[in-house]
Amino acid sequence: MTALDTLISGGDVLLPDGLHRVDLGLADGKVAGLYAPGTAPDASRIIDARGKTVLPGIVDIHFHVRAPAYPERGTVLSETRAAAAGGVTTLFEMPISKPCCSTPGELARRRDHFSENAVIDFALYAAPGDLTEASRDAMMDLGCIAWKIFTTPSPPGRADEFEGLAFPDEADQLRALELLSDTGRPVVVHAESAALLAHYEGLAKALDPADAATHGLSRPAICEAVAVAKLLAMNITAQAKLHIAHVTSAETVAVLRGFAGTSDFTAETCPQYLFATEEDVARAGIYAKVNPPIRHQADQDALWQAISDGVIDYFTTDHAPFAKAEKQAAEGDFPGAPPGVPGIEFILPAMLDAVARGRLDLKRAHDLICANGARRYGLYPQKGALLPGSAADVAIVDLAGETRFAPDTMHSHARDVAHLFYGRVLRGKVCETILAGQSVFKDGAVTGKQGGGRFVRR
User: Fold this and answer.
1) Per-residue DSSP letters for 165-227?
2) Considering only CA atoms, which of 311, 309, 310, 303 is closest in space to residue 258?
3) What is the DSSP code string of 93-136?
4) Cys-Cys link to 440, which of 2, 84, 147, 178 (CB 3.0-4.6 A)?
């Protein structure tokens, strides 16, 4: 038998049909084989995984770093280091940048920038830009993993970041869905009704801007639910591969249920909605402001039920770092505060904690944060599985360990604004992260090299 580069021995390995006590052999950046204990060929390195669980490296399909713009918020290097610390081996970067990643030239520029700096593998979303076939086809040729649009207008002062990404007009939303329907790539949508947002934001001007509840009242769940309903109705005609981003509310879950079977659509939610409520926002202040807003316990309960029922099949970070100075400047002003929290280090421990608490089993948890995304985006089983020939991307975790969240335990450049997660102690710990057979995080230290990540195409 051919010698292995690495043998991960003694652990429970998560395979597509569940956990198995097998040894995992890695060679040349791939999974070389699965072996009954004691039967593997010799290996240059042996990792003792006794008492640990061996997972396919996590694939996060919703991530923002905005690089090369705004390095004060975080860089490709800093945020992919944080991803490695969280057991994430592949991330999908959203197209918000300065300028927006809505042209072939900008997509190529971002690809090159990430290639020079990423510690882990990455894929890039594109915005459909001018809604022409020529631009669409050029970005597909460059390897965009999927598409992203907003149903909301560009935020004030940020038009260049959202040019070709923000489509508040419903006719343009339909045009985008139809243009992208035959590409075979998901169309991810940030769905909130522009007209209703304008209405409720106007009403909220009479409210206390320092009150956490004001943000939720300015963007209530009806804004999301109406936008999602319209998109799903349009998609009956367009037949795009539609994906609804960051679902927050019981109302939207009801809409998703109502449209089941009408077209090819999927939906996700995020840690801030599944593990926090408006009470946590009140505690953390403007550091916990996100769009759409974090809502109530009843909404969180509905999201968990939707995961249990298979209405929501994806759990993503929507990692969105900001500089501490930017958040501090908005103290007492929820409407004016920048929206986003850094969640890339939270997603895997949070799911392991949910498993420990009996919310769901390990296979379902891993499907939500990894395998389902790899399948939907055309990467499975290269990513999202530990089968012979799969990428040697691995997260070794201790299900009985603990992860504590505080600025001194996190790696994100935005760790000083992660107030939403401060003080949380989760059952489950990432011990080692392996990318293409090489350790990129081990025992609390990031060991991956700048530029070691690869650009991932379908």
Assistant:
1) TB--SHHHHHHHHHHHTTSSS-EEEE---HHHHHHHHHHHTTS-TTSHHHHHHHS-HHHHHHH
2) 311
3) E-S--SS-S-SHHHHHHHHHHHHHH-SSEEEEEE--TT--HHHH
4) 84
Instruction: Report the alpha-carbon distance of residue 326 to residue 344 in Å, rounded.
Output: 20
**Residue 67 is encoded by which pair of tokens?**
């690089």
Per-residue pLDDT of the chain (458 residues; tens, 9 = 90+): 679 999 999 999 999 999 999 999 999 999 999 999 999 999 999 999 999 999 999 999 999 999 999 999 999 999 999 999 999 999 999 999 999 999 999 999 999 999 999 999 999 999 999 999 999 999 999 999 999 999 999 999 999 999 999 999 999 999 999 999 999 999 999 999 999 999 999 999 999 999 999 999 999 999 999 999 999 999 999 999 999 999 999 999 999 999 999 999 999 999 999 999 999 999 999 999 999 999 999 999 999 999 999 999 999 999 999 999 999 999 999 999 999 999 999 999 999 999 999 999 999 999 999 999 999 999 999 999 999 999 999 999 999 999 999 999 999 999 999 999 999 999 999 999 999 999 999 999 999 999 999 999 99
CA-nearest of 384, 447, 352 to 61 is 384
Contact 162, 223 (CB under 8 A): no
Q: Which pair of tokens denotes residue 238? A: 């367009």
